[in-house]
Amino acid sequence: MTTRSPRPTRPPPGTTVTATRSDSSARCIPSLADSNPGTGNPKRLRLAAAWLLAASAPVLAAENSGGSPVTDFWRAVTSEEQRVSEQALLAASEDVATLYAWLKEGPAFSPDVQTGAWEAERTGADGLIFRYGVVVPDSYDPEVSYPVEFLLHGGVARPEWGPGVDWWRSGYANLQREDRIFVVPAAWREAFWWHDNQADNLPAVLREVKRLYNVDDDRVSMTGISDGGTGAYFFAFKQPSEWASFMPYIGHPGVLRNPAGGVNYRLYFENLTAKPLYIVNGELDRLYPAASLQSFIDVLIEAEVEHVFRVIEGGGHDTRWLPDETPAIERFKTEHPRDPFPDSLQWVTDRDDRYNRNMWLRVDRMASPEFPAVMPAVIRAERDGNRFTVEATAVAGFSLLLSPEEVDFSEPITVSVNGETVYEDLVEQSTETLLRWARETLDRQALFTAELAISLLAE
Predict the structure, then answer these.
(1) How far apart, in whole angstroms, are the C-alpha atoms of residue 141 and residue 184?
(2) Which of 37-41, 109-113, 390-394 is predicted with the least confidence, judged by mean pLDDT?
(3) Ordered DSSP codes for 361-398
């Protein structure tokens, strides 16, 4: 059995368009812990094309000189390498428009990179060693941007993985595809997928892959199996900006509210409205039978979250169904690239130090940080040209991350919050802001040249 939810705009064949929810109250899962656990905007494209055209001559000059400042910036890892490469970029570029065009074009990717399967590791801020595998097409072409698919394994309540151990049960050889790059990170009992250290680790691993390979930033998806499926739910609810879509298989979001897993998150359905999910569970799964997710699916439908819920009749806690389901899953991924600058966004958070950003919208300060579970920060923003209309509850401050892809910096930007105009003026672009975001994300499709911070505190 399959259920499919509506997509807010430009649906693929077979889906139905319905209106977005209009009430601003936060929806969260109250009782799952007790259960068994597109295409571009035409106006934006015209605006970006005109802005980039103004910088085309410097871009050509950079290309003729080999574009080494951008490549050095892209490959810089240490603080000193980053400092030197940023200074070189600033010295070589004439203005923000030039630097933006260079970074959007990206580095000169080398053809002399490792293909096939390989493993690496990185050290987290907590000192833990995070290992990961990468599977690259043998026919990798540095002139082609490749989709990337993260694969999160199950069975995370186990000892730390040693080097050379294959944590993807079916082996890397079965993952070899010529049309994408796979990333297979490792989790264990000190680093569940839904812990803070993995929330830092997975984007860092993605950046490491982007340093080496030409990645299609708008086609980075996350697939998870069992505990990995629960991990996919976590990133969809808490940290979705890097990802285009989520495929949680034989997992359960209720685990995210289970203190036995080291966490007890409140899960807000508003946070799922921008990123589609393809959910698969077995009818007879001994851990997470499909019926145990029905209350969750009902709220997805009510909140108009785009999703597919596939119930495998007679299916257990396994993926024997995957070969038959693969064509539909691949269509789903193809039909759902990330939109880096959607015209509307919403976010609900009970923290302002992390899990507080959705694409170009970030909560900087909660109004009641001492009572986050009772009064989470709720914010919804819509953009029409240079005008932003914001509804905010329990928010003391937020930022709009601005890009020439979405606004015209030669004209004033207007921001109204809860019906009151709080800002109406020009916003100056900053090379420092642009370089900081480029360094933090290596995301050529979501570059920001200004941060407009709005305080809602009484003066």
Answers:
(1) 21
(2) 37-41
(3) EEEEEES-TTSTTTS-EEEEEEEETTEEEEEEESEEEE
Two structure tokens written together for 238: 């808490």
Percent of the chain, pLDDT > 90? 76
Tell me the domains of the chain and their CATH numbers.
2-39+110-335 (3.40.50.1820), 42-105 (no CATH), 344-455 (no CATH)
pTM for this model (two decimals): 0.86
Structure tokens at 32: 């799952």
Q: Give the number of C-alpha atoms closer than 13 A to the C-alpha of residue 36, restricted to the C-beta side.
A: 13
Angular region, 205: left φ>0, alpha ψ -120 to 50, beta rest: alpha
The residue written with tokens 């984007």 in the block is 203
Pairing of strands 387-393, 395-402: unpaired
CB 336 within 8 A of CB 236: no
Inter-residue contact 307 to 15 (CB < 8 Å): no
- Structure-token pair, residue 449: 């040249």
Dist. CA 217–CA 293, nearest whole Å: 31
d(CA 211, CA 205) in angstroms, rounded, equals 10
The total of other beta-carbon atoms located within 10 Å of residue 18's CB is 12
Residue-level pLDDT at 31: 32
Q: Strand 146-152 to strand 181-185: parallel, antiparallel, or no bridges (unpaired)?
A: parallel
Question: Per-residue pLDDT tens for 172-189?
Answer: 778 889 999 999 999 999
Q: Helices 68-75 and 196-212 sit at what angle, rounded to 10 degrees? A: 150
